[in-house]
Design a protein that fits this description.
Elements (H helix, E strand, L loop, with lengths): L2 H15 L4 H17 L4 E5 L2 H15 L5 E3 L3 H11 L4 H9 L5 E6 L5 H12 L3 E6 L6 H5 L2 E4 L5 H20 L7
Parallel strand pairs: 1-2, 1-3, 3-4, 4-5
Amino acid sequence: MNSDFYKNYYDEYSRLIYSDALDETFDDFKKLAESVKSNKHKLIFAGNGASASISAHAAVDFTKQAQVKSITFNEANIITCFSNDYGYDKWIATALDFYANDGDVLVLISVSGESPSVIEAAKRAKEIGLKVVTFSGRSPNNSLKALGDVNFWVDSNAYNIVECIHMMWITTVIDSVIGKSEYEV
């Protein structure tokens, strides 16, 4: 590898990570998180693969750092049980039927914005009256983004870059709820 690869790689991050147009999206998610916190509801995070890992990290940090109660459905037993009994495409939607309450907010993460289990979860959330926050990439007209109330979208087809930016944007909202980026944990 030569240094051109690294420079181009990080130039892509610089191009994608922030624009003034994101301020309103950050503020909208922050307001939802603060409403969840003040009304003693919860954020529910879900995704597949690396997006499931991002979901788990986000749920812990929202809960511990920002004091916003948050959960994720990353337990192998719930995934395999609900997938087996209700179908893989419906497992997250079914988990919502068991765990979601009025006033909760669903946060869905999918690089493609086309993951069937995530799309079905967004549809179910809308049916039961939950607000939906989405994190996606690739096509600006992806199915997940079309179902969201607050949408974060990365204009890239590079999975690792999209996933890292999703994590950075989520932690930006956590820190905005806290009101600072440096604090003891």
